């Protein structure tokens, strides 16, 4: 994202014939990677594709080269950086105990790790940009920027947001709800360092939600 901002600023103002296809590809990438997330069976692959989908929004907003677009891109980059890292940390805690990343095999972990399930819920709500998270602010800036650039983009960004909410709920339900497998009845407990790690991810997100100017540069 930083590289896109630096490179795109050297091309300002953008030639229309260069700007249009890049934004279309970025928007198309949002739908494709979000759809791939819906059929993933590997937990880490699902989280990785989720990051690619969010970066499609960031790339499109940067190429438009408006103050709102750059503000939304910067906000979403920081917010999703913390969110995605927290999701990978959660996936790793599951893998260290079950030794598998397959969603169909690892179910019902809420019964074994109720506190870790709370971290899963908070992180997934942040990933789907639930209000009043900083992720929502970034996505609103980007969607408004793209809508101002071209009205039909609201269809693609709206579908992308809907699919993001769908696969985030799918990820939470597949890992936490349901009946736990008999082979996972005796699992080692979670450690304080793991909860501290997740606290250090979600606490900055909460602080940024209360004061978005720290990352967005607005509302000062």
Automatic annotation (TrEMBL):
GO molecular function, one term: NADH dehydrogenase activity
Record GO cellular component, one term: mitochondrial membrane
Residue span(s) of domain NADH:quinone oxidoreductase/Mrp antiporter transmembrane: 1-164
Segments crossing the lipid bilayer: 18-38, 45-64, 70-91, 103-122, 154-173
Keyword Mitochondrion: yes
Reaction(s) catalysed by this chain's protein: a ubiquinone + NADH + 5 H(+)(in) = a ubiquinol + NAD(+) + 4 H(+)(out)
Coiled coil: none
EC number: 7.1.1.2
Cross-referenced InterPro entries: NADH_UbQ_OxRdtase, ND/Mrp_TM
Subcellular location: Mitochondrion membrane
Membrane topology qualifier: Multi-pass membrane protein
Keywords: Electron transport, Membrane, Mitochondrion, NAD, Respiratory chain, Translocase, Transmembrane, Transmembrane helix, Transport, Ubiquinone
GO biological process, one term: ATP synthesis coupled electron transport
Role summary: Core subunit of the mitochondrial membrane respiratory chain NADH dehydrogenase (Complex I) which catalyzes electron transfer from NADH through the respiratory chain, using ubiquinone as an electron acceptor. Essential for the catalytic activity and assembly of complex I. Core subunit of the mitochondrial membrane respiratory chain NADH dehydrogenase (Complex I) that is believed to belong to the minimal assembly required for catalysis. Complex I functions in the transfer of electrons from NADH to the respiratory chain. The immediate electron acceptor for the enzyme is believed to be ubiquinone.
Protein family according to the UniProt entry: Belongs to the complex I subunit 4 family.
Entry protein name: NADH-ubiquinone oxidoreductase chain 4
């Amino acid at each position: 994202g930083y590289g896109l901002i630096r490179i795109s600023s050297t091309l300002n103002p953008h030639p229309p014939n260069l700007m249009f296809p890049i934004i279309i590809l970025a928007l198309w990438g949002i739908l494709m990677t979000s759809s791939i997330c819906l059929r993933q069976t590997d937990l880490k692959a699902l989280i990785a594709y989720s990051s690619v989908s969010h970066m499609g929004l960031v790339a499109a907003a940067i190429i438009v080269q408006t103050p709102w677009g750059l503000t939304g891109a910067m906000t979403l980059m920081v917010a999703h950086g913390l969110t995605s890292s927290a999701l990978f940390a959660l996936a790793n805690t599951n893998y260290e105990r079950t030794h598998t990343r397959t969603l169909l095999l690892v179910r019902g972990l809420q019964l074994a790790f109720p506190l870790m399930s709370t971290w899963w819920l908070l992180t997934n709500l942040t990933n789907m940009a639930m209000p009043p998270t900083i992720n929502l602010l970034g996505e609103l800036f980007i969607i408004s920027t793209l809508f101002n650039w071209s009205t039909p983009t609201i269809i693609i960004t709206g579908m992308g947001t809907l699919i993001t909410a769908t696969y985030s709920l799918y990820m939470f339900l597949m890992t936490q709800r349901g009946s736990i497998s008999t082979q996972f009845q005796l699992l080692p407990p979670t450690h304080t360092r793991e909860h501290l790690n997740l606290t250090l991810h979600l606490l900055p997100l909460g602080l940024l939600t209360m004061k978005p100017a720290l990352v967005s540069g607005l509302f000062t």
